Amino acid sequence: MAREEESYYGKHGTPQKYDPTFKGPIYDRGCTDIICCILLLVAIVGYIAVGVVAWTQGDPRKVIYPTDSRGQFCGQAGTPNENKPFLFYFNIVKCASPLVLLEFQCPTTQICVEKCPDRYLTYLQASTVGAASEELKYYEQFCVPEFKNRKKALSAPEVLKDDLCPAMLTPSKPLARRCLPAVSSKKGVIMVGNKTTFNDGKGHERNVTELLEGAKKANVVLEARQVAMKIFEDYTVSWYWIIIGLVISMVVSLIFIVLLRFLAGIMVWVMIVLVILVLGYGIFHCYMEYAQLKGQAGSDVSLKELGFQTDLRVYLHLKQTWLAFMIILCIVEVVIILLLIFLRKRILIAIALIKEASRAIGHIMTSLLFPLCTFFLVCLCIAYWASTAVFLSTSNEAVYKVFNETECIYARTTCNPETFNTSNVTKVCPSARCLFAFYGGESTYHKYLIIFQIYNVFMFFWLANFVIALGQVTLAGAFASYYWAFKKPDDMPAFPLFSSFGRALRYHTGSLAFGSLILAIVQVIRVMLEYLDHRLKAADNKCAKFFLTCLKCCFWCLEKFIKFLNRNAYIMIAIYGTNFCTSARNAFFLLMRNIVRVAVLDKVTDFLLFLGKLLIVGSVGILAFFFFTHRIKVIQDTAPPLNYYWVPILTVVVGSYLIAHGFFSVYAMCVDTLFLCFLEDLERNDGSTEKPYFMSSNLRKLLKKTNKQQADA
């Protein structure tokens, strides 16, 4: 037996031995992983340099304002188009071309105008009345600026050939600063400007449905912007109610944590009983459905015979489906009951640990506010990443391409609008146009732009993980000070949280950078795999899709394992002050030597905390739903009118989850820290006068452990 135990410990490290000088987190420590600390500082300097370059080269106006065929912004102050906020398409019908989906640009001239046209009119009609007519003056505002200088020298066909003016105008309305056909419907008939047909300016009568088709393609991106504007309006009228909802969730979270200290045991057992009852009802419901289908035609068809069906409701009419559900639920029910029978003592230890965590948080109340600091720093990382990404994506130059309605060898090639009319392209393809396509560039800076974007994403993950790691080490050091205080709270340091924060920054910035770097690399790889998966969705290569799915699954598992390992390594760093690799190895071996306790306690505590989050989010979410949908009669007139009532509700739900997660992350870190300290305590001490246990009296009673000096007393 001794040999087996020695062999087991040899595989998973050597248990900690008694050290009379060990009284909790070591204060006499040195700097760890200095190389990673230097690397992080250099990377931050580089990140700042990338941000400065992006801010000097980028122009966010390219995202906000529509752009005409010459790359000029519509409605931008300080430009010639300052008083022309709307974008007008010369021929909206051409936007129905598949080219729109390839280049996100209509193959027709686009100009900025003061207002959208409000009538049907062709250039031939306006020009035949007279050069000084009101119709022609009205028409001129929808022509390119050069038309005013050339209109007397050119005939109507030449004007249309040179694309100086649109061939026709149709009644339009602005949508997201774009002039799109003013569509109406009477008795099921679609009309534009009270007409079902229009003159295309070339002597042909065409149906207004062609305008609609072009408008739909031109509206590929505009619909999302329109929804975004409505969402913004909802936020402007409901923001204070959202804040009230988040404050309520914060108060409920605090109350829940306070109650958890006194009712942890009851809540765990109530949760377990509810799970058993729910599974029992599921078994009963499946049996009733199975019995009800007996004798019905078609219910005896097997799942194999039916095969795969897109309408999943078909399977609910088969007896075999309900029988399978019933068998699965019975197996789960039996497994849970057996686990409760054989692991009842471990569950009691988990409850005792949760109670102990509540006491620790009660003695270090500032720990509940510390997530606000972490949240603020993470928000800074997000803001810097988002702003840098926007400036990088808008730091390109205007790129012009050849657009043509028919086949042309120069189609979609780059061109120069200033020399296009005298180039060879117009001779080969007379109807070709040189139009603004997108923002890009061929300079050295633009060639490395994608590398800057990848570096931006990588640094975001690294810094965000570093901030989270700093918070975990700080909390772990504070809670370890509580556990290893023999007389609680008398032997605790005056300011355990601030002392732990200072030690983490002064000595272990490199170790935190090391752990967060490993995690950031895995997360960037996962982002790249998601990008590849998105690009391969249209492909029919099943082998590549299968291989990519396997890679995504493997890296997801790897990320989860690294997060688990890092979390426990940070606890060991906070206690012993060792470097990252040593701390990770010691934590892993300590957990492996107590694998049964790890499996049970981790899952029980995680499920309890998840249940707490679910209760908070569910209660606040239901309250928000009834309020914003005007279902609370007492205050139904107080709720603001909304375009989408789900906008504030979803915001409150997500915000409530983040708040609850912030509070419970402190709780989870406390439980994990106390658990590792508890395992160390069992290995270091034996309850004798020389080696007394540091665990609380409740834990000692559950484990039937006693300190001899207390037993003698």
TrEMBL record:
**UniProt keywords, alphabetically:** Antiport, Cell membrane, Glycoprotein, Membrane, Mitochondrion, Mitochondrion outer membrane, Phosphoprotein, Transmembrane, Transmembrane helix, Transport
Q: For this protein, what is any one GO molecular function term? A: antiporter activity
In the record, the note on similarity to other proteins reads:
Belongs to the CTL (choline transporter-like) family.
Q: Where in the cell is it found?
A: Cell membrane; Mitochondrion outer membrane
Membrane spanning residue stretches: 34-55, 239-259, 266-284, 322-343, 364-386, 459-486, 507-529, 569-592, 604-629, 649-679
Record's protein name: Choline transporter-like protein
InterPro entries, from UniProt? Choline_transptr-like
Q: Write down the superkingdom of origin.
A: Eukaryota
**Can you state which reaction this protein catalyses?**
choline(out) + n H(+)(in) = choline(in) + n H(+)(out); ethanolamine(out) + n H(+)(in) = ethanolamine(in) + n H(+)(out)
Q: Which Pfam families match?
A: Choline_transpo
- Any keyword Cell membrane? yes
Gene Ontology cellular component list:
mitochondrial outer membrane; plasma membrane
Bilayer topology reads:
Multi-pass membrane protein
